[in-house]
Amino acid sequence: MVNFADRLKQLPPYLFMQLRDKIRQAEADGKDLISLAIGDPAEPTPAYIVETLRSVALDPVNHQYPTDEHKGMLVFRQAVARWYDRRHGVSLRPENEILALSGVKEGIHHFMMALVNPGDIVLVTDPGYPAYRANALMAGAEVFEVPLLAANGFLPVFDDIPEDVCRKTKAFFLNYPNNPTGACANELFYTRLVAWARERNILLVVDNPYSEFVFNKDRKLSLLQVPGAREISVELNSLSKTYNMTGWRIGMAVGGSEIISAMCKFKENVASGVFNAIQLAAVAAMDQGDQDIEIILARYCKRRDQALKTFAGMGITAKPGEGTFYLWLPVPHGYSSLEFTEKLLLEASVLVTPGTAYGPHGEGYFRVSLTVPEALLAAALDRIGNVLKRR
Ligand SMILES: Cc1ncc(COP(=O)(O)O)c(C=O)c1O
């Protein structure tokens, strides 16, 4: 019998693997399941990105170890710099403020291993993306959960975090536009957060893979726009959601050069970088894809509005989310999050995510992903409506 390492034993089961198991089981049972549970766009990657991959994959130069290995190709880092400048008004130095990643998820792990010591505290939000907690635990850190409440626009009240916790805190993980709540940050919040973190010597990590999915353009924000943020911050971003490229595994860490250099040092020991051809296709996406982002954003906006209207007709009402492609909805009276999602699975063959999957403060909510085509979304909502009528 193999005895797993303690660091592995302490990890809770990974939520999305459990959801995938449920989908597979339903398929094996011959059920016609519709999943609104996973944020994985159904639409393909735009054709010119796939074409770029096809042509550069033919060049044997790209069959060798990736150029500049762990850091990412210089042309990739230069494209990231152009993209951040154009889309977020943030100027970055490709030499030392950008690191290529195989997606944000990898960056979360690299940050923890490179910068967090056993016994440090890592602040995560509740609700929040489960990988922050898991990777903090793997680094031997303690996790302190900061609630996100509707009453505060799902922004953390950092002044409420006890000073004795702050003294032991190494980093605070935030994610706006937010999965699962759909909330966005604002300039005042980020400015106050940076001042608060600088005073306490706390690093800020903004997980930003939904950075382009903001419905009101005035709310589009990178933490790195805030004066004084850069030295203490890193932003993790990727092409996964922005260009329908979840399967390609390509992203970037951008921010303070000391943090980037620590992550590089860790990465050069555990990975050999991203396939050159994928990095070159990502350059095409970042340089040529602005129009695609508009089309994709308009699609999610339309689905959001239609779905909210349909849910309102069922008595489930919520304020429209400001960003992402998720709806964060209250469960009907009389059910817990889990009870309601199990009911939908059993009686409607529709899979949604229970709010508690993102932390205890997710109780009372369920999350719907708008990444399925309109007809499937409408069919799923129809089924949910029928279940609620039968109550
Ligand atoms: C908040 C958040 N962070 C990170 C990720 C993972 O992104 P990537 O595909 O870039 O690893 C997701 C994916 O669902 C997410 O919702």
Low-pLDDT runs: none
Q: Could you say which structural class the secondary elements and strand pairing correspond to? A: alpha/beta
Note the run of SSEs as H and E.
HHEHHEHEHEHEHEEEHHHEHEEEH
Number of helices: 13
Largest sheet: 7 strands, mixed
CATH class of the largest domain: Alpha Beta
β-strand number: 12
Ligands in the model, by name, code or SMILES, are: pyridoxal-5'-phosphate
Say what the CATH topology of the largest domain is. Answer: Aspartate Aminotransferase, domain 2
**How much strand content do the residues show?**
5-15%
Mean pLDDT level: 95
Question: How do you describe this structure in short?
Answer:
This protein is an alpha/beta fold and 391 residues long.
What does this structure look like?
With about 400 residues, the chain is an alpha/beta fold. The chain has two domains: about 5-45 and about 290-390, Aspartate Aminotransferase, domain 1, CATH 3.90.1150.10; about 45-290, Type I PLP-dependent aspartate aminotransferase-like (Major domain) (Aspartate Aminotransferase, domain 2). Helix content is about 40%, strand content about 15%. The protein is built from 13 helices and twelve strands. The protein has helices spanning about 5-10, 15-30, 45-55, 75-90, 105-115, 130-140, 165-170, 185-200, 255-270, 275-290, 290-315, 335-350, 375-390, and strands at about 35, 100, 120-125, 140-145, 170-175, 205, 235-240, 250-255, 325-330, 350, 355, 365-370. A seven-stranded mixed sheet has the order 2-8-7-6-5-3-4, sandwiched between helices. Strand 3, helix 6 and strand 4 (about 140-145) form a beta-alpha-beta unit. Helix 3 packs antiparallel against helix 10 (about 275-290), helix 5 runs parallel beside helix 6 (about 130-140) and helix 5 crosses helix 9 (about 255-270). It is globular, with a radius of gyration of 21 Å. The chain starts with 5 loop residues before the first helix and ends with a helix. The protein binds pyridoxal-5'-phosphate. The site of pyridoxal-5'-phosphate has 13 residues, from helix 5.
